[in-house]
Amino acid sequence: MSVIERMLGRPDGPGDDNNGSLTIAPMRKRDLRQGILDTEAHAYPTPWSPGVFQSEIDQVAGGSRYYLTARRSSGTASGSRRSSKGRIVGHAGLWFTLDEAHVTNVAVHPDARRTGVATALMLALAEEAIRRECTAWTLEVRVSSDGAQELYRNFGFVPAGVRKNYYENVEDAIVMWCHDIQHDAYRRRLDRLGATR
Ligand SMILES: CC(C)(COP(=O)(O)OP(=O)(O)OC[C@H]1O[C@@H](n2cnc3c(N)ncnc32)[C@H](O)[C@@H]1OP(=O)(O)O)[C@@H](O)C(=O)NCCC(=O)NCCS
């Protein structure tokens, strides 16, 4: 059983609103209005528009992109719509270039944070990057996003540079890289991350 299967098979997370089981599945366009756009608006000063998401999803079939939606099967928090499959609580994506994967987006609804949703999404992205034979993955993160940087450090990302004024022409981005993701040591890191959630 993979790390992801183990994670998805258990109820997870503390608190009354976040004790349902988590499922992660490929993003569909209808997910946008069922919770993704809401999460996105809470997560970023400049959220992606529906058109950006649709363009990204359109590129999944060609293999250059990969997008996931996270849902909780139960919960009582307001702020996101639900379906019979559960309430959408987060989303994430990858862009593949040669033998590298670039994290394009990781966002979790504020009332579902610190319950392992981003970790589950990142584990699923890592599995896909490894399956596609990528040797490394990379991302940009706001200098002010301490929590996101901590999340990424957990996954072995280290700072490798700064893009000045990358966000809204005012905030710098830290460029982070994680290499050798095909190695056994990285598999052990993912197993540890999955086991602690
Ligand atoms: C960053 C973000 C995706 C984290 O999502 P999350 O589901 O709360 O993350 P997890 O519960 O999986 O957290 C895993 C670990 O990451 C670290 N972490 C996450 N959020 C943190 C925070 N606010 N402060 C400090 N550490 C944090 C912790 O080590 C945490 O483990 P712990 O809860 O056992 O201490 C979420 O806060 C978010 O959507 N932020 C706005 C959008 C954003 O900045 N995205 C990143 C774009 S580069």
Characterise this structure.
By secondary structure, this protein is of the alpha+beta class. Helix 4 links the parallel strand 5 and strand 6. The chain is globular and about 35 Å long. Strands 1, 2, 3, 4, 5, 6, 7 and 8 form an 8-stranded mixed beta sheet that branches. It has a single domain, classed as Gcn5-related N-acetyltransferase (GNAT) (Aminopeptidase, 3-Layer(aba) Sandwich), CATH 3.40.630.30. Bound molecules: coenzyme A. The site of coenzyme A (COA) has 21 residues, from strand 5, helix 4, strand 6 and helix 5.
Order of helices and strands: HEHHEEEEHEHEEH
Structural class: alpha+beta
Q: What are the segments in which pLDDT stays under 50 over at least 5 consecutive residues?
A: 9-16
In percent, how helical is the residue content?
25-40%
Reported CATH architecture: 3-Layer(aba) Sandwich
- The coarse silhouette is globular
The major β-sheet equals: 8 strands, mixed
CATH superfamily: Gcn5-related N-acetyltransferase (GNAT)
Q: How widely separated are the two ends?
A: 15 Å
CATH class assignment: Alpha Beta
CATH topology grouping: Aminopeptidase
- Rg on CA atoms, Å: 16 Å
Q: What hetero molecules are bound to the protein chains?
A: coenzyme A
Number of helices: 6
Proportion of beta-strand residues: 25-35%
Average of the residue pLDDT scores: 90
- Quick one: how many beta strands? 8
How many separate structural domains?
A: 1
Short description:
With 197 residues, the protein is α+β, with helices and mostly antiparallel strands. The chain has one domain: Gcn5-related N-acetyltransferase (GNAT) (Aminopeptidase), CATH 3.40.630.
